[in-house]
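Q: My labmate handed me this sequence with no annotations at all. I'd like to see what the chain might look like in three dimensions before we decide whether it's worth expressing. Could you predict it?
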Amino acid sequence: MTGYAWRYRRNVLLALGSSLGGMAVMALVPLVTKMIIDDVVVEHRRDMAPLIALLIGAALAVYAMTYIRRYYGGRLALDVQHDLRTDMFRSLSRLDGRRQDELSTGQVVGRGTSDLQLIQGLLFMLPMMIGNVLLFVISLAVMVWLSPLLTLVALAMAPALWYVADRSRKRLFPATWYAQGQAAAVAGVVDGAVTGVRVVKGFGQEEQETGKLREAGRRLFAGRMRTVRLNSRYTPALQAVPSLAQVAMLALGGWMATRGQITLGTFVAFSTYLAQLVGPVRMLTMVLTVGQQARAGVERVLELVDAEPSLRERPDAHELPADAPADVEFVSATFGYDPERPVLKDLSLRIEPGETVAVVGASGSGKSTVSLLLPRFYDVSGGAVRVGGHDVRDLTLDSLRAAIGLVPEDSFLFSDTVRANIAYGVPDATEEQIRTAARAAQADGFISALPDGYDTEVGEQGLTLSGGQRQRIALARAILTDPRLLLLDDATSAVDARVEHEIHEALRGVMAGRTTLLIAHRRSTLALADRIAVLDGGRLSDFGTHDELQERSALYRRLLTDPDELGGVERDPVAELARDNGHAQENGRGPDRGRAAGNGHAPGGEHGASTRSARAVRSARTAAAESGGRDLEAELDAEAEMESEPVSAKRRVVDGITPELWRRAGDRSGSSAAEVAGAAGPDGSRPTAAAAAGPGIAGALAGMPATPELLAKVAALPPATDTPDVDEEQAVRPEREYGLRRLLRGFGRPLLFALLLLAVDAGAGLLLPVLIRHGIDDGVQRLALGAVWAASVLALLVVLAQWAAQIASTRMMGRTGERILYNLRVKIFAQLQRLGLDYYERELTGRIMTRMTTDVDALSTFLQTGLVTAVVSVFTFFGILIALVVLDLQLALVVLATLPLLVVGTVFFRRQSVKAYELARERVSAVNADLQENVAGMRVVQAFRREHLGVRRFTERSDGYRRARVRGQWLISVYFPFVQLLSSVAAAAVLLVGAGRVNGGTLTAGALVAYLLYIELFFAPVQQLSQVFDGYQQATVSLRRIQELLREPTSTALAARPREVRSLRGEIVFDDVSFRYATEDPASGESGEALSGVRLRIPAGQTVAFVGETGAGKSTLVKLVARYYDPTSGAVRVDGTDLRELDLAGYRHRLGVVPQEPYLFPGTVRDAIAYGRPDATDAEVEAAARAVGAHDMVASLDGGYLHEVSERGRNLSAGQRQLIALARAELVAPDVLLLDEATAALDLATEGLVNQATDRLAGRRTTLVVAHRLTTAARADRVVVMDHGRVVEDGTHEELLAAGGRYAKLWRTFAGEPETAGV
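A: Here is what I predict for the chain of 1319 residues:
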């Protein structure tokens, strides 16, 4: 940290120098007061005017020094915070794939928000703290000069302070480290629930997520309460030491004064010095509290700053020569994400310059891994990867990645305009170049139709666009870079057949003469390839042309053989339909039924005849598969037997589970899953590995640096067992209005009791000057030692009462504050669960995270450290004013004369500072959003070599936040020294007036001394308020932001009396449904409607496929059925009831949803499958996986069903994620199944297994399928063709082919007959 601060040595020197100078002046002021009392008031030896002028001059000097210290010290803290933030971001942008896989986005955001805020707060306090050390030293020197004996009192205070502070440091650090780990765990829960919101809502699991938040929040509460209890031991003790020293000084000093060993002025000076030390000691306690938290924060932030990629560029790395041939070679390449379990094994593959090679294989066979090794996101553990004859490890990363254009499988887009996303890799591209790339990717048409065309903001991760639209923009982004090597990882999986055909035609021109690697699942993609590599279990099974592989590779034929084709669906079955027309007529399916739809009636009549006949056709297909495909199946079985045993061979099934797949890696005991993974929690989730480490450590270890010594210190702490005991049912209820009163509702009594304790604390502090006055007037001046002893004993009792009150108030305020914050976290999170998807599409995840992290942390900091100090300071401030009036009204009027200036200055400052803090809060939200988005999209950033530009943009945003805070810091630097100046002027005026009155006999010397002590005490509360005001302003703005979130109306509001949903028959009716996304601009002149006048009736148990061009409204229909949104007009009805009248959670529990991009939460595979039914047994989980064909894939994973799934499922392939998502949907036994292109990332063979499984289950549920693979549509009972938000055709597969309309054209394009489709 010293190195960071020393970058701004000018600010360091100014802040420290002014702090030392100001404190030195303050240390000498009591000497001037002594001279006035001794030489002017008592002995009349000096003139008053020069000494008063000296006091005023000292006050002005302190004002100037304090302004410099505050302003430049504040700038220093903000500059260091900015540097740490940008260095952390820069370090993150360097991390390779392996290090990125270890990251938790929630942890990173936590370090970039809470930890950096703590560090900034500590740095802001340090200059004053160092100045206070000088004040202590100078005060001690002056006190030795005045009276060595009395100085022993102060010296006795030093070791006591040191002992308490040292004990505090040793125990508080591990406690705060643990608590901050829990805070990061809370951030992780929020990040998962926000980024996976579609899955949460799709399965109606808002309560499960709220349960996770409550569990993490309780652990955080317990951890922080342990810290509060430790604070209550040490903080009051630190504050009691100076007060005990004052009592000792009263007794010893009074005794010495009565014996004539010291003068009254010396006695007053000593009292003043000790009073001056109260403020610094209070600050010391605050610094210790914040310092321990900041120390943990520094370690966590510096761990990221110092993180080194496991993959490094060699010192002698050279650029890829511009004339190097664009060939690619894998030479015996071996690689595993876990080095113990290689994904690729001894892979040797050569791609010639200008050649296009496709890679095919089953899910998890290593296809995407091949594409990740080429741009060197990972390094092989054995063998080599070469480009242009050069080992990629010998090349500079910049030159290697500049030669590669990547279209990743997840098509990540940034929250920017369409134009900026396409030009991401070439920021200076011209408009024509951007449009040319868009046209090549078949994206220009839909982009031009967007409300703002190429200037349309796409929202976070591009989620305001359909999956196909995102893929085309990602493809245009890669094409624009004009790479020598093109990597397409299933780049057209989310587009329809016609668009895919057009993209392929355009790609032929783009790929001409360009080396291209395709990761392929669709047969149509393989037509682009010159040769095809077949992967099997990470090994190269075969390599050749399509014709060669068809002839010699049974595995290839299996992967690329469409199960529907085996089942009798021919490439153009119109002739077959004509031959069997009579049979079809018998089943109510004449060709005349395939018509342009829109009348809202299901083909086949009211009673679902079409459903029955469709099932008959499916049964016929299955029978044909069993006969017509027998030879192929026999061949595949023989090949499988020769090559290796199936993964499930020889596995016993016991009580519905395969025991070998329910053991953690390294466990051979045969323990059940529950025994190994730990019992499920209240929310159904299982503990993580960290949670299993032992009580008190759960959840704290994730993503945190820890040494054995630190863990031992944490384990040695008292157990963290406190519970919040709040009304959680009340907390989760929605609030129309939410302010400070609502925030504190239900906590009135403990708050009132805590405030009473604080009043006792403040009152005790105010009694000491009164007792000192009596000691002087009744004891010192009358030489009555008994009065001195009496005042001293009373003062001792007051200090002990104050100590006890501080212990109790610290615990009471700490517990009450943490209960309030727990209640607030639950309330905010529950509100987030209520809000519709439109809110998440408008708001960046980073901004939402800011509400739950930075804003709640601001309230936490204020409630934990600031509020107590503020309340005591306010009580002290007004108590002093009352005491001044009671002691002497005339002198009180002198002091009150400064109040008008104080009021005017305060009103001005408050108005200006609120503006500055609101601007700062807005900008820090943008910074957090940028951080979160870049962490999520880091692979795209690196692939397009935008690390430096990304760092520059992040730095600019962080600097904007810093500048907004500097403005607020300037206001603070002007205002608080001004208040201090007024207090000093008031003290000088009191001395001037009071000295005359003492001489005139209308005021006692004791009263004047008490007055001076009270005015000296004015410095302490004002100084302390200045420290907490920064936190108060941040807390005020944060509360306002939280209010805005809590007042946000939900777009899918619950009915006043929702109908309970226990089960559904599954009849779905779209009744004249129109819908417009909230992100569209109605004033743009475009219709903007995603759906328009849709009328459909889907009988219960029917399987309906929605097809059409990308952006036609297919996914929107499915989202309306899931009630992610409500229609703009019309209604969606299930079993005759408007969805808006149903209990939303109960309804969604009857749905099974598989989204376009399956999101998985961290945990085990078992947890991922059981997400929709956390209470499912292990046997039920395994049965669901078997039902959708995912069991063998799970069996191939290390640990089987207990294999750890990383954040978002990043350690699994897209196909593996989709299989788990299908099993997740199957487990809930849904009445309505919603599949949004649910098999896009699967090879055809695996898709066939899934389809056969879903066919067996289709009669039990209504199924809506968004289909781009038309073989998926052909399996359905009914096909609905969408175009521009309208239903244009509706019928069976055969009927629509016979009708020769849009569907027939799509089919012919899909079948490889583009000329007949008029393309």
